[in-house]
Amino acid sequence: MIPGMTYHIYNRAVGNEKLFKEKENYLYFLKKLQTYLIPVMNFYSYTLIPNHFHLMVQIKDEGALNDLFKLLKKKTFNPTIHNLSDFVMEQVSNCLNSYAKSFNKKYKRMGGLFMAGTKRNELITERYLRNLLLYVHKNAVHHGLTKKIGVWPFDGYNEIVSNSATWLCASDAINFFGSREEFIRCHTELTIDIKRRDWDV
């Protein structure tokens, strides 16, 4: 993943398993995201569904990634032998593995919890960014978990529109739509207009 670029990152549970069985699981996963991934990416939003998740993020710049690489690896980043994209994905993998180990221990299960190979799509156009935010925030409605946006407690919508302190880059997410009022209107009135739907899970 390229420093400074925006991505949609997503994965799901293996088979018919669930990633989140109770409220405690959702909250614990959010803590894992903040611990492992905030150092390497800025979060615009997210949604956590019982068997999968979606993240909308911007990878931090090279300077920040180089500093973290040096801190964690105890050596200086060397572009001839190291790769920043691999380093970022290693953090993603560490995050999911840490959650899976705790989940397995709690529910006395064994084996992999997430599908192999977390997927990511680079988001280039503003239309793509706006529509992905709509997709992420309407995901619970799409899967029949709630009837309207803003009700599902495990996505970033309410954190973005509430004007309260948040770990999300709420003002940036709102700016994709021009204003808070337009952000809310689009989420309330518009349908999703994305031709690439390879992230349906």
Can you walk through the features of this model?
The chain has 201 residues and is α+β, with helices and mostly antiparallel strands. The chain has helices at residues 23-36, 62-73, 84-107, 126-137, 139-142, 157-161, 170-175, 180-189; strands spanning 6-12, 41-49, 52-59, 119-123. It has a four-stranded antiparallel β-sheet with strand order 2-3-1-4. The two termini are 22 Å apart. The model is unreliable at 194-201 (pLDDT under 50).
> What kind of sheet is the major sheet?
4 strands, antiparallel
Q: Total number of helical segments?
A: 8
The CATH homologous superfamily corresponds to Transposase IS200-like
- Beta-sheet strand percentage? 5-15%
Spatially, the strands of the biggest sheet line up as 2-3-1-4
Distance between the termini: 22 Å
Number of domains: 1
Q: Structural class of the helices, strands and pairings?
A: alpha+beta
Run of helices and strands: EHEEHHEHHHHH
| Rg estimate, integer Å | 17 Å
Shape: globular
Stated plainly, the CATH topology is called Alpha-Beta Plaits
CATH architecture: 2-Layer Sandwich
Query: What is the CATH first-level class name?
Result: Alpha Beta
The strand count comes to 4
Helical content (DSSP H or I, runs of 4+): 40-55%
The average pLDDT score comes to 91
Condensed summary:
With 201 residues, the chain is an alpha+beta fold. The chain has eight helices and four strands; from the N terminus they run βαββααβααααα.
SSE diagram, text form:
Layout: E1 6-12, H1 23-36, E2 41-49, E3 52-59, H2 62-73, H3 84-107, E4 119-123, H4 126-137, H5 139-142, H6 157-161, H7 170-175, H8 180-189
Antiparallel strand pairs: 1-3, 1-4, 2-3
Helix pairs in contact: 1-3
